[in-house]
Write a structure and sequence with these properties.
With 485 residues, the chain is an all-alpha fold. The protein has helices spanning 18-28, 30-33, 54-73, 79-84, 90-99, 108-121, 131-142, 156-162, 208-215, 228-251, 257-270, 281-293, 300-315, 327-346, 365-383, 386-410, 421-434, 440-457, 461-471, 478-481; strands at 189-190, 193-198, 348-350, 361-363. It is 56% helix and 3% strand.
Length: 485
């Protein structure tokens, strides 16, 4: 069956299902293990805080994705739509959820933005860097833990389910979604560089053939649309993010009840009249953005109801008592997380013909607005904090220094034998890929640039900082800090 094309049939496997084999390979990958040292929001390295990292986040997304898949496959009314669109298998969505963050670089989303800018502006790579595209590159090209020479040799269904944004930065498919008057979510132009192409995408030019082959079995799915399994993975990611990041920052005392309650109540009192610099003003800006960009889902009454529910259960519920580490505090967090996860998973529905800003799998109206408000709370009261911004500026400096030092080393023809073996291997791999994609004069330059990006993106937060210390002469621990080379 086409969904199983390129499934592994060789070598020892612990599972009979090819989709379970895919899952086992992803979990056994060193790229998966490294996620334990990669930022979700706050770096797990040296923080002293018990917060989610990319590994625990991926595990939770997999748990939620499987629950959604099992719920939908148990619904007889959903079967005709699912069958028409290519199928829905719980093992596929679990595998895709485990793989979806493999390409996230050190320092999380901040690292992703910095690497993209450096890749485009300093290294001259038109595709830049994108975490989703890097995940797809890992499972199809870079990882060596499948039975073939490159990649994990995953089934077509799992590879397609990893494609959250099933297009390239520019050019594919034609017409490209970024050119639409109302583009799909993520396909809009890159902020500050609209000429660069889509802000989000799931395949570099080097993996376009893999993208096409992965989706060939899903002919009933539109060229800009996710497969049903990719949509389940994507919505599970949203649910986990909305709940567990709020949980994290309550635990560490960052998410304060007064600020959250003041903003929510301020909007409830003033509504559309909420002033920009007054409590409720930021929430009103969110409401207007949702109304203008997502009119297919937005409703005034549903937004107001979502604000009320989040105020009652988060601001006046979970956050009313500070987290002190007691068993009662732990129980409150566990009950909040379980209650909201069940509510949001219970709100998942299947659309036969979704609007362009949605997918075939989406949330019911009430839950869609609730996720938007929960994510707003996290963004407003955690991500926009000045102390986090200052910390992230330091992380951006680390990545810029690391990219510059490694690129300079690769460009030094007098020191060929001492260059890190893995870095040399990545240059050779990229050189073979670019040889058939770009003019001969550009091959070496672009191969060096892509190799540096691949190399840096495969580090943990701690490895990135330690390696920069080595390359700038600041480290006194030669045999530990330089071990990553």
């Amino acid at each position: 069956m086409a969904r199983r094309s390129r499934a592994a049939e060789t070598g020892a496997a612990l599972a009979r299902s090819p989709f379970r084999v895919d899952r086992d390979r992803i979990v056994a990958s060193p790229f998966f293990a490294r996620l334990a040292g990669v930022t979700q929001v706050v770096s797990p390295t040296g923080s002293g805080l018990l917060v989610h990292n990319r590994l625990t986040h991926s595990l939770q997304v997999a748990q939620v994705a499987r629950a959604i898949a099992e719920r939908l496959t148990g619904d007889p009314a959903a079967a005709p739509v699912v069958d028409r669109l290519g199928g829905l298998d719980a093992d596929v969505v679990e595998a895709a959820a485990l793989a979806h963050d493999l390409g996230h670089p050190p320092f999380g989303h901040l690292g992703e933005q910095v690497l993209d800018r450096l890749a485009r502006e300093r290294l001259g790579l038109p595709d830049g860097f994108e975490g989703n595209a890097q995940s797809f590159r890992i499972v199809t090209t870079i990882d060596l833990h499948g039975p073939g020479g490159t990649g994990l040799d995953l089934t077509a269904a799992v590879r397609a389910a990893v494609l959250k944004y099933p297009w390239s930065r520019r050019g594919h498919p034609d017409p490209h979604p970024s050119a639409a008057a109302l583009p799909p979510r993520g396909a809009g132009p890159l902020p500050g560089a609209p000429e660069a192409g889509s802000a989000k995408f799931s395949a570099y030019a080097t993996e376009l053939d893999d993208l096409r082959a992965s989706r060939a079995a899903f002919g009933r799915v539109g060229p800009w649309q996710q497969t049903v399994e990719a949509a389940v993975m994507d919505i599970a990611d949203d649910i986990a993010y909305a709940i567990h990041d709020v949980e994290d920052f309550h635990r560490v005392g960052v998410l304060q009840q007064a600020g959250v309650a003041g903003e929510l109540r301020g909007w409830q009192r003033a509504g559309a009249a909420a002033g920009a610099d007054r409590p409720g003003g930021a929430l009103e800006r969110l409401r207007r953005r949702l109304r203008d960009k997502d009119g297919w889902a937005y409703e005034d009454d549903a937004f107001a109801a979502a604000v009320e529910r989040v105020r009652a259960e988060l601001a006046d519920g979970l956050l009313a008592a500070s987290f002190d580490g007691s068993m009662a505090a732990e129980r409150a967090v566990a009950e909040f997380s379980a209650r909201w996860t069940a509510r949001l998973v219970g709100g998942v529905r299947l659309l036969s013909d979704p609007p362009v800003r949605s997918a075939h799998v989406t949330l019911a109206t009430e839950q869609w607005h609730e996720v938007a408000v929960l994510k707003f709370v996290h963004r407003r009261f955690v991500l926009e904090r000045a102390d986090l911004a200052s910390h992230q500026r330091g992380q951006a400096t680390v990545l810029a220094g690391l990219v510059g030092a490694l690129h300079d080393w690769l460009s030094d023809d007098d020191d060929e034998t001492h260059k890190p073996p893995r870095l040399r291997d990545l240059v050779a791999l990229a050189r073979g890929e670019f040889a058939v994609l770009v003019p001969a004069a550009d091959v070496d330059r672009m191969a060096r640039g892509r190799a540096v990006v691949d190399y840096v993106a495969s580090l943990t937060d701690g490895q990135a900082s330690a390696l920069l210390d080595v390359l700038t002469g600041r480290s006194a621990r030669l045999w530990t800090d330089a071990a990553v080379l």
